[in-house]
Amino acid sequence: AQSVTQLGSHVSVSEGALVLLRCNYSSSVPPYLFWYVQYPNQGLQLLLKYTTGATLVKGINGFEAEFKKSETSFHLTKPSAHMSDAAEYFCAVSKAAGNKLTFGGGTRVLVKP
Amino acid sequence: ETGVTQTPRHLVMGMTNKKSLKCEQHLGHNAMYWYKQSAKKPLELMFVYNFKEQTENNSVPSRFSPECPNSSHLFLHLHTLQPEDSALYLCASQGQLKVVSGANVLTFGAGSRLTVL
Protein backbone atom coordinates (compact mmCIF):
# COMPACT_ATOMS: atom_id res chain seq x y z
CA ALA A 1 0.00 0.00 0.00
CA GLN A 2 1.08 3.54 -0.64
CA SER A 3 0.86 6.44 1.74
CA VAL A 4 1.72 10.13 1.90
CA THR A 5 2.60 12.20 4.93
CA GLN A 6 2.60 15.97 4.82
CA LEU A 7 4.35 17.48 7.81
CA GLY A 8 2.43 20.43 9.16
CA SER A 9 -1.23 20.98 8.46
CA HIS A 10 -0.69 24.75 8.56
CA VAL A 11 2.28 26.84 7.47
CA SER A 12 2.57 30.60 7.86
CA VAL A 13 5.11 32.55 5.79
CA SER A 14 5.80 36.21 5.22
CA GLU A 15 5.40 37.68 1.76
CA GLY A 16 8.71 37.36 -0.03
CA ALA A 17 9.97 34.55 2.19
CA LEU A 18 10.76 30.99 1.17
CA VAL A 19 7.87 28.54 1.03
CA LEU A 20 8.77 24.97 2.00
CA LEU A 21 6.12 22.27 2.20
CA ARG A 22 7.23 18.81 3.22
CA CYS A 23 6.00 15.55 1.74
CA ASN A 24 7.20 12.04 2.47
CA TYR A 25 5.80 8.97 0.80
CA SER A 26 5.94 5.22 1.03
CA SER A 27 5.67 3.04 -2.02
CA SER A 28 6.71 -0.50 -2.89
CA VAL A 29 7.35 0.46 -6.50
CA PRO A 30 8.92 3.51 -8.14
CA PRO A 31 6.37 6.23 -7.52
CA TYR A 32 4.76 8.93 -9.56
CA LEU A 33 4.51 12.03 -7.37
CA PHE A 34 2.29 15.06 -7.61
CA TRP A 35 1.59 18.37 -5.94
CA TYR A 36 -1.85 19.91 -6.23
CA VAL A 37 -3.10 23.30 -5.02
CA GLN A 38 -6.62 24.16 -3.93
CA TYR A 39 -7.73 27.76 -3.74
CA PRO A 40 -10.80 28.64 -1.68
CA ASN A 41 -14.05 27.30 -3.12
CA GLN A 42 -12.28 25.58 -5.98
CA GLY A 43 -11.18 22.10 -6.95
CA LEU A 44 -7.61 20.83 -6.95
CA GLN A 45 -5.26 22.07 -9.64
CA LEU A 46 -2.04 20.33 -10.67
CA LEU A 47 1.10 22.27 -9.73
CA LEU A 48 3.70 19.78 -10.89
CA LYS A 49 4.45 16.10 -11.24
CA TYR A 50 7.40 13.72 -11.20
CA THR A 51 7.31 10.56 -13.25
CA THR A 52 10.81 9.70 -14.46
CA GLY A 53 13.99 11.52 -15.41
CA ALA A 54 15.17 14.74 -13.83
CA THR A 55 14.53 14.74 -10.12
CA LEU A 56 14.05 18.51 -9.87
CA VAL A 57 10.67 19.33 -11.31
CA LYS A 58 9.45 22.82 -12.08
CA GLY A 59 5.77 23.64 -11.99
CA ILE A 60 3.45 26.55 -12.39
CA ASN A 61 3.50 29.78 -10.39
CA GLY A 62 7.22 29.48 -9.58
CA PHE A 63 6.96 26.28 -7.57
CA GLU A 64 9.37 23.40 -7.82
CA ALA A 65 9.88 20.07 -6.08
CA GLU A 66 12.74 17.63 -5.81
CA PHE A 67 12.36 13.88 -5.75
CA LYS A 68 14.83 12.32 -3.30
CA LYS A 69 14.57 8.56 -3.42
CA SER A 70 16.96 7.99 -0.52
CA GLU A 71 14.81 10.19 1.70
CA THR A 72 11.45 9.12 0.16
CA SER A 73 10.63 12.79 -0.05
CA PHE A 74 9.12 15.20 -2.55
CA HIS A 75 9.22 18.60 -0.85
CA LEU A 76 7.68 21.62 -2.54
CA THR A 77 9.43 24.99 -2.55
CA LYS A 78 9.02 28.50 -3.85
CA PRO A 79 11.77 31.09 -3.30
CA SER A 80 9.50 34.05 -2.65
CA ALA A 81 5.93 33.82 -1.42
CA HIS A 82 3.18 35.97 -2.88
CA MET A 83 -0.14 36.74 -1.28
CA SER A 84 -1.78 34.78 -4.08
CA ASP A 85 -0.03 31.61 -2.86
CA ALA A 86 -2.40 31.38 0.10
CA ALA A 87 -4.15 28.06 -0.49
CA GLU A 88 -4.12 24.42 0.53
CA TYR A 89 -1.49 22.17 -0.99
CA PHE A 90 -1.76 18.42 -1.44
CA CYS A 91 0.97 15.92 -2.15
CA ALA A 92 -0.04 12.68 -3.87
CA VAL A 93 1.57 9.41 -4.95
CA SER A 94 0.61 6.71 -7.39
CA LYS A 95 2.10 3.60 -8.90
CA ALA A 96 3.53 3.98 -12.34
CA ALA A 97 0.84 2.07 -14.15
CA GLY A 98 -2.45 3.95 -14.41
CA ASN A 99 -3.26 3.61 -10.78
CA LYS A 100 -5.28 5.87 -8.56
CA LEU A 101 -3.65 8.62 -6.53
CA THR A 102 -3.22 8.54 -2.77
CA PHE A 103 -3.32 12.02 -1.25
CA GLY A 104 -1.71 13.46 1.83
CA GLY A 105 -3.70 15.34 4.42
CA GLY A 106 -2.91 18.74 2.93
CA THR A 107 -1.03 21.79 4.17
CA ARG A 108 -2.77 25.12 4.39
CA VAL A 109 -0.49 28.06 3.61
CA LEU A 110 -1.08 31.49 5.07
CA VAL A 111 0.91 34.39 3.62
CA LYS A 112 1.41 37.41 5.87
CA PRO A 113 2.00 40.86 4.41
CA GLU B 1 -12.29 26.39 -16.70
CA THR B 2 -10.58 23.13 -15.91
CA GLY B 3 -12.42 20.92 -18.40
CA VAL B 4 -14.41 19.21 -15.66
CA THR B 5 -17.73 20.83 -14.81
CA GLN B 6 -19.71 20.07 -11.69
CA THR B 7 -23.28 21.10 -10.96
CA PRO B 8 -24.73 22.34 -8.77
CA ARG B 9 -21.92 24.25 -7.07
CA HIS B 10 -23.95 24.50 -3.87
CA LEU B 11 -26.74 22.27 -2.59
CA VAL B 12 -28.72 22.34 0.63
CA MET B 13 -30.95 19.38 1.34
CA GLY B 14 -32.91 17.81 4.13
CA MET B 15 -32.28 14.30 5.34
CA THR B 16 -35.34 12.95 3.53
CA ASN B 17 -34.63 14.61 0.19
CA LYS B 18 -33.33 12.97 -2.97
CA LYS B 19 -30.91 14.96 -5.06
CA SER B 20 -28.13 14.35 -7.58
CA LEU B 21 -24.73 15.80 -8.28
CA LYS B 22 -23.53 15.93 -11.86
CA CYS B 23 -20.05 15.87 -13.34
CA GLU B 24 -19.17 16.33 -16.99
CA GLN B 25 -15.83 16.22 -18.79
CA HIS B 26 -14.99 16.79 -22.42
CA LEU B 27 -11.30 15.97 -22.16
CA GLY B 28 -11.61 12.56 -23.75
CA HIS B 29 -10.69 10.90 -20.48
CA ASN B 30 -11.78 7.37 -19.72
CA ALA B 31 -11.69 7.34 -15.92
CA MET B 32 -13.81 9.37 -13.53
CA TYR B 33 -13.70 9.70 -9.77
CA TRP B 34 -15.78 10.95 -6.87
CA TYR B 35 -13.94 12.31 -3.84
CA LYS B 36 -15.34 13.62 -0.56
CA GLN B 37 -13.55 16.51 1.12
CA SER B 38 -14.63 17.22 4.69
CA ALA B 39 -13.24 19.86 6.98
CA LYS B 40 -10.11 18.73 8.84
CA LYS B 41 -10.09 15.31 7.15
CA PRO B 42 -7.99 13.95 4.29
CA LEU B 43 -9.42 13.70 0.83
CA GLU B 44 -11.52 10.52 0.69
CA LEU B 45 -11.81 8.50 -2.51
CA MET B 46 -15.40 7.28 -2.94
CA PHE B 47 -15.83 5.73 -6.37
CA VAL B 48 -13.80 5.09 -9.52
CA TYR B 49 -15.16 4.38 -12.98
CA ASN B 50 -13.12 3.21 -15.96
CA PHE B 51 -14.82 3.11 -19.34
CA LYS B 52 -18.21 3.40 -17.60
CA GLU B 53 -17.54 0.42 -15.34
CA GLN B 54 -17.19 0.87 -11.60
CA THR B 55 -13.75 -0.32 -10.57
CA GLU B 56 -13.69 0.88 -7.01
CA ASN B 57 -16.17 1.49 -4.23
CA ASN B 58 -14.31 2.60 -1.15
CA SER B 59 -16.84 1.23 1.37
CA VAL B 60 -19.22 4.08 0.69
CA PRO B 61 -22.67 3.90 2.37
CA SER B 62 -25.51 2.94 0.07
CA ARG B 63 -27.19 6.32 0.54
CA PHE B 64 -24.65 7.45 -2.06
CA SER B 65 -25.37 5.90 -5.44
CA PRO B 66 -23.08 6.64 -8.41
CA GLU B 67 -24.04 6.40 -12.04
CA CYS B 68 -21.81 6.61 -15.09
CA PRO B 69 -23.89 6.47 -18.28
CA ASN B 70 -20.89 7.23 -20.51
CA SER B 71 -17.25 8.20 -20.18
CA SER B 72 -18.10 11.91 -20.17
CA HIS B 73 -20.72 11.98 -17.44
CA LEU B 74 -20.78 10.92 -13.83
CA PHE B 75 -23.58 11.34 -11.32
CA LEU B 76 -23.82 10.93 -7.58
CA HIS B 77 -27.37 10.27 -6.44
CA LEU B 78 -28.07 11.23 -2.85
CA HIS B 79 -30.90 10.00 -0.62
CA THR B 80 -31.59 9.96 3.11
CA LEU B 81 -28.29 11.64 3.86
CA GLN B 82 -27.03 12.50 7.31
CA PRO B 83 -25.65 15.85 8.54
CA GLU B 84 -22.16 14.32 8.67
CA ASP B 85 -22.37 13.88 4.90
CA SER B 86 -22.06 17.64 4.52
CA ALA B 87 -18.85 18.20 2.58
CA LEU B 88 -17.34 19.30 -0.70
CA TYR B 89 -17.78 16.58 -3.30
CA LEU B 90 -15.11 16.64 -5.96
CA CYS B 91 -15.24 14.96 -9.32
CA ALA B 92 -12.08 14.22 -11.26
CA SER B 93 -11.22 12.65 -14.58
CA GLN B 94 -8.08 10.86 -15.70
CA GLY B 95 -6.76 10.07 -19.15
CA GLN B 96 -4.93 7.03 -20.38
CA LEU B 97 -1.28 6.51 -19.72
CA LYS B 98 1.17 8.54 -21.73
CA VAL B 99 4.55 7.44 -20.55
CA VAL B 100 6.55 10.41 -21.80
CA SER B 101 4.23 13.19 -20.74
CA GLY B 102 3.42 11.70 -17.40
CA ALA B 103 0.47 9.63 -16.48
CA ASN B 104 -2.14 9.50 -13.81
CA VAL B 105 -2.81 13.23 -13.70
CA LEU B 106 -6.25 13.93 -12.31
CA THR B 107 -8.20 16.91 -13.54
CA PHE B 108 -10.62 18.13 -10.92
CA GLY B 109 -13.86 20.01 -11.10
CA ALA B 110 -14.59 22.93 -8.79
CA GLY B 111 -16.71 20.76 -6.52
CA SER B 112 -20.25 20.68 -5.22
CA ARG B 113 -20.64 22.03 -1.69
CA LEU B 114 -23.33 19.93 0.01
CA THR B 115 -25.06 20.89 3.24
CA VAL B 116 -27.40 18.37 4.86
CA LEU B 117 -29.79 19.85 7.39
Write the layout of secondary structure elements.
The complex is a heterodimer of chains A (113) and B (117).
Chain A: E1 3-7, E2 10-14, E3 19-26, E4 32-38, E5 44-50, E6 56-58, E7 64-68, E8 73-78, E9 87-94, E10 102-103, E11 107-112
Parallel strand pairs in A: 2-11
Antiparallel strand pairs in A: 1-3, 3-8, 4-5, 4-9, 6-7, 7-8, 9-10, 9-11
Chain B: E1 4-7, E2 10-13, E3 18-25, E4 31-37, E5 44-50, E6 53-57, E7 64-70, E8 73-79, E9 87-94, E10 106-108, E11 112-116
Parallel strand pairs in B: 2-11
Antiparallel strand pairs in B: 1-3, 3-8, 4-5, 4-9, 5-6, 7-8, 9-10, 9-11
Report on the structure:
The complex is a heterodimer of chains A (113) and B (117). With 113 residues, chain A is mostly beta strands. Helix content of chain A is 0%, strand content 55%. Chain A has strands spanning 3-7, 10-14, 19-26, 32-38, 44-50, 56-58, 64-68, 73-78, 87-94, 102-103, 107-112. In chain A, strands 2, 4, 5, 9, 10 and 11 form a 6-stranded mixed sheet that branches. A 5-stranded antiparallel sheet of chain A has the order 1-3-8-7-6, with no helix packed on it. In chain A, strand 4 and strand 5 (44-50) form a beta hairpin. Chain A is globular, with a radius of gyration of 13 Å. The mean pLDDT of chain A is 92. Chain B has no helices and 11 strands. Helix content of chain B is 0%, strand content 56%. Chain B is globular. The relative contact order of chain B is 0.33. In chain B, strands 2, 4, 5, 6, 9, 10 and 11 form a 7-stranded mixed sheet that branches. Chain B is mainly beta. The chains are: A mainly beta (113), B mainly beta (117). At the A-B interface, strand 4 and strand 5 of A face strand 10 of B.
